[in-house]
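Exercise 3.2. Students should predict the tertiary structure of the chain below and write it as structure tokens, then compare their answer with the key that follows.

Predict this chain's 3D structure.
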Amino acid sequence: MSKASLQVISCKGELQSNSNLVMIFCCMLGRRGEPLVIEEIQVEPPQASEIRVKMICASLCHTDILFTKGYPLSIEFRRPNCVSSSISQALFPKVLGHEGAGRITFSCSVVESLGEGVTELKEGDLIIPTYIGECKECENCCSGKTNLCQKYPHGLMFDNSSRMSVRGQRLYHLFTCSTWSEYMVVNVNYAVKIDPRVPPTHASLISCAFSTGFGATWKEAQVESGSSVAVFGLGTVGLGVVEGARIRGASKIIGVDLNEEKKEKGKVFGMTDFINPGGSDKSVAEAIKELTGGLGVDYSFECTGVVSLINEGLEATALGRGVTIVIGVSHETIASIDMNSLIWGKTVKGSIFGGIKPQSDLQSIIDKCINEELHLDALVTHEIQLDEIGQAFELLKQPDCVKVVVLI
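Answer key:
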């Protein structure tokens, strides 16, 4: 499908001044056990507390790949203001993608883009979607201990319905949004306004992967000046950890990756030492301890989703105070942990979105982006069009690939 035909699809149908008009747009659709396809879908107008967003660009995260293969999504079914029950299943068909940047717009200049009650955003605003919410009212939001809001659901809208369908069949979001689409509808609590000085490609990167790594050093580990850090995996998340550790003042930042080309990339973000596990008979933990006088690092961050590296990261940290932050997502749900390391005072902690609360914390990263404190340009190694998105999965296999941006 050519880009020209995609543009035609985005304005398909009779365009009249009608706020209830259902628009037809192009997206990348996944069905259970079937190859990904570009499909024409129906996108309804936003309802109360919702916005319709025209996507400008999106990006590809390894988590997207897991979900195409059936990674289960936890869905909580709610009565008003409380959780009633939850299930975990692989929901299909779904519109894919959860990283991106878009603009609140009147689709083809005639369709309303704001639902009832939306006052904090307006038509034309540049936003990034977030895959967790922040109501600032639930027990978790008020606790100061977690960024996991209990109020807003995943996969569907707040009323457990969808604004997207294909030939009458309901479509699920990947998480709370579906960015591999020309247009989508999201709850306003999953949208953060972006200063127009932020390039859309940069906005896409801070909507998930980079911010997840960066935030983990700040919100989860609270890395101190002069401390030592080990980062397992130098993809976008891992490089976000390196950048965050550098800005937090870490004196030693050790990157671990099988890809030798990541060595120079890591140095751009502030890495001081590099370990390629394939080039030594020693374990990664032993190599890290050699670089830290035998003590181990203060913090390790597992960013690959390889479950065996969780214990490796734990072993690489210092006795009595070492902290391992688990960020990477995997199909495997059980990891072996050395209990002696835990008994001797080491800690393992899981993290979603780096502990960042979208409404309260993302602005800090946005400000650093505006002030050019972050090396986001170095992350974008490939750009493709939406109709070429199938190529993105192959590009990720190339050794020089860090982040693929999809121009929509």
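Discussion points: Residues 236-248 form the longest helix (13 residues). The chain is about 25% helix and 25% strand.
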